[in-house]
Each structure stands twice: as C-alpha cells, then as structure tokens.
Amino acid sequence: MRYLTAGESHGPQLTAIIEGVPAGLELLAEDVNKELSRRQKGYGRGRRMQIEKDEAIISSGVRHGLTLGSPIALAVENKDFAHWTKIMGADPLDPDEDAEVKRKVTKPRPGHADLNGAIKYGHRDMRNVLERSSARETTVRVAAGAVAKKLLSELGITVAGHVLEIGGVKAENTAFHSIHQLKEITESSPVRCLDEAAGERMMKAIDDAKANGDSIGGVVEVIVEGMPVGVGSYVHYDLKLDAKIAAAIMSINAFKGAEIGIGFEAARRPGSQVHDEILWSEEDGYTRKTNNAGGFEGGMTTGMPIVVRGVMKPIPTLYKPLQSVDIETKEPFAASIERSDSCAVPAASVVAEAVVAWELAAAITSQFGRDNMEEIQENIRRHNEKTRTF
Ligand SMILES: Cc1cc2nc3c(=O)[nH]c(=O)nc-3n(C[C@H](O)[C@H](O)[C@H](O)COP(=O)(O)O)c2cc1C
Ligand SMILES: C=C(O[C@@H]1CC(C(=O)O)=C[C@@H](OP(=O)(O)O)[C@H]1O)C(=O)O
After folding, report:
1. Does ligand 2 have an atom closer than 6 angstroms to the CB of 5?
2. Which pLDDT does position 220 carry in this prediction?
3. What global pTM score does this model have?
4. Is there a contact between 34 and 376 (Cβ–Cβ < 8 Å)?
C-alpha cells in the first residue's frame, strides 16, 4: 500500500491517491469524515479550524460502499480558499498583476520550514514554501489513515491515540481497562487525555501560553491491540516495522522524537527489568508477563499491544515573535501574525493514530495478501491458529 498527497494549505483542495487497498473492504465517506472531524477538534487550535469543515469526496476506487482493489482518489476542500483566491491565484497558470497578489512573504519564522525551504527551492516568496509545509496536509494523511483503520478493524485490530503531556503537565492516571474504554474517555476530553484533572491543567497551560503570545508542545501515545505475531521482519533494515512506525511518527509536522515501549527509559534499567518474560497457555498461546518492548522484538510484532509515543515541539508561529531576518532587506524584524494554533497536540494524536495505522495496514497486506479482504482474513486466521500451538 502507498499513497501520495497533493495540495496547498490555502489552495482549493487537498488530494490523496491511495494505492494497494484490497478489494472488498466496506468503505463509506462517513468512515473517513469521522476521523477528519476528530482531527479538527482539540483545545488550543486557532481560528482556521472554525472556518474548515473537513469532508472527504471519494471519487474513485469504491463502488456501492466496497473498495474495488483499484486506486482510491480522495479530496478534501479548503473552505478558507474562498478568502485566498487572489493570493493563491484562482487560475494557477494566470499571472495576476494585482498588488496584493504580488506581496511577498519575506520574513521567515524560526522553527518553521520557511527559510530552508526558500533557499532550497529558490523561492523569494516564502508563501511558496509555507503553503505546502503547513500541517494542513495532515488532513489527507488522516483520510488515508482512516482507510487503513477501517481495514485493520475488519481484522480485529484496534488503534487508539491519546495525550500524555502538554506544556510540562503530565497525565498521572493513565490506567484503562480496555482499549475501547480508553477511546471512550479520551473522545470526550477536549485535550484527548485519560486523566481528567491533568486535562484541566493542560487546558490552563494552553490558555496561559496563548495569553503570553506563546505556544506549547507535548507527548502523544498510540496503542494498538490485535496485531498478529511476526509482522515485519529482522532480515532487512527496511523491513523492520518498528523503524517504519518511528519514521511515520517523525514525519508528522513538528514531531521531534519517537519511542516504542519503555523507549528511553530502557537506558536506565538492567536487562532483567527490561525484557518481557515469555509465557504459554493452551487458550492464549504465547504471551508476555510485561510489555516493556511495546509490541516489537527484532523489527517484528510480538502480538502484545503496540505502544508508541511521539514528542511534538511547540508551534513555531508565535504572537510573541522571535528574532529573525527579512530575506529582502537582511534587517532584523519583529513580525506580527494574523492567526495560529497555540497547541495542536490533541489534534496531532489523531494524526499519529492515522500514520501508525497506515504502516500496520501496509505491513499486513504485504504479508497476508493484497488482493481481497477475504483472502487476508483467511490467511490471518490460519497464521493465528498456527502461532498459538507453535
Ligand atoms: C495538527 C498540527 C497543527 C499545526 N499548526 C500549526 C500552526 O498553526 N502554526 C505553525 O506555525 N505550525 C503549526 N504546526 C507545526 C508546523 O507545521 C511545523 O512545525 C512545520 O511544518 C515545520 O516542520 P518541523 O517542525 O517538523 O521542522 C502544526 C502541526 C500539526 C501537526
Ligand atoms: C489548517 C490546518 O492547520 C494549520 C497548520 C499550520 C502550519 O503552519 O502547520 C498553520 C495554520 O494555518 P493558517 O495559517 O491557515 O491558520 C493551521 O491552521 C489544519 O490542521 O487543518
């Protein structure tokens, strides 16, 4: 499975072409829209989210609610384009002489892609960089992830993301009885946090950052239950599924770190307190006493829940500007900005779910069959049965 996205933040639409989804998967626009709406919620976002109402238009690859095995084309309209038609160029091939249209963005924001992107592509107008480097693109990544999640759910695999930390405020009570309970609780939290009291403090931290013209980041976690054992491989570096998951997390805008299982904590413990002891029972087959490995050994799934965390840095666009240099005048400046998110960690936890789901669905289809859902279901059923008594 693979996909490509196209689209600028303030252009007419975002597009994804999704390839390799097996035939026979039930898929409705509603399945995608549900995920798009989850990404739009979350405390700390700016005015843009009040303008957009993300909805998917699926124009190919699906008939009567079932995937065909052919490429799926999917688009999401940018409602904000209506306010940007002149600046973006209603007809991209028509050079417009309007002064407003010609006003260039020449002031790079520290922490964003503006300066490096301008130098790399030779753009004197950094709008040409920011339009595509914007996390608006995560909309269609969540759409592709929604397709992957649907595929996984048909195979009994559940993916849930939540927020562990925002601006230094940590969730203390992160216990849950089942992944479904985790989903239920976090869905009703404005910061997608299991710990209600910590969630309140996180919102306060976001309010404070906003009042100070600042921004804050945090930590998100994705948990996956139901993966078969042995997905991924140790035989080549580019088949290691834990590495692909880490890369997927790092590919999310503003993410600067990823860890699996106990992650960096493993550096501080002896092996006897890290490695998960192996058990076997007739009913459950092989299981582990603990899950410090977060569901992976040797680049392959262990069958235990996958536990992945990602670190998001604070949003770069600040109302309280940092020092920067105008690329035209080479003079320092203090920019005033129009709008920005103060914190997008809750939204990013939904993006993290999507990118993890995508990698898992891609690995499943490459191992258990690419053509149709029935074949994959049958192959996994046989694999699970063999694994239990292995
Ligand atoms: C959901 C989401 C929303 C974001 N919103 C903003 C924003 O409003 N303003 C901003 O400057 N950056 C925002 N970012 C972060 C930038 O897109 C990101 O920092 C930028 O693309 C540079 O890439 P890097 O931080 O990975 O180096 C957002 C990121 C995510 C995941
Ligand atoms: C539009 C989205 O996020 C945007 C990501 C973003 C950035 O620089 O990454 C900047 C902001 O865009 P704008 O400058 O238009 O307000 C965010 O709103 C979205 O998540 O759908």
Report:
1. no
2. 98
3. 0.97
4. no
314-329 pLDDT, tens digit each: 999 998 878 999 999 9
Q: How far is the CA of 73 from the centre of ligand 2 (A)?
A: 23
Helices 373-389, 345-368: axis angle to 10 degrees equals: 80
Q: Whose CA is nearest to atom 6 of ligand 2?
A: 134
- Which protein residue's CA is at the shortest distance from atom 3 of ligand 2? 136
Sorted by sequence, the CB contacts under 8 Å of residue 326 that are 6+ apart come out as 106, 107, 332, 333
- 57-83 tens-digit pLDDT: 999 999 999 999 999 999 999 999 999
Q: How many CB atoms lie within 10 A of CB 34?
A: 12
Structure confidence at residue 91 as a pLDDT band (50, 70, 90): confident
- Would you place residue 346 in the very low, low, confident or very high pLDDT band (cuts 50, 70, 90)? very high
**If you take atom 2 of ligand 2, which residue's CA is the nearest one?**
136
Q: Which residues of 343-353 are buried (b: 16+ CB within 10 A; e: fewer)?
A: bbbbbbbbbbb
User: 295 vs 149, 191, 194, CA distance in Å?
Assistant: 18, 26, 21
Tell me which CATH code domain 2-389 carries.
3.60.150.10
Q: Which residue has the tokens 């960690």?
A: 345
Which ipTM did the prediction report?
0.98
Ligand 2, residue 347: give the atom nearest the CA. 20
Measured between alpha carbons, how far is 7 from 136 in angstroms, rounded to an integer? 9
Mutation pick for ligand 1 pocket among 134, 192, 210, 216 (CB with most ligand atoms within 8 Å) = 134
Classify 295 in phi/psi space as left (phi over 0), alpha (psi -120 to 50) or beta: left
Minimum CA distance residue for ligand 2 atom 5: 135
Reading the block at residue 234, the tokens are 């140790």
**Residue 208 Cα to ligand 1 middle (Å):** 20
- Reduced to 3 states, what is the DSSP secondary structure of residue 23? strand
Domain edges within the chain: 2-389
Q: Residues 11, 80: contact at Cβ < 8 Å?
A: no
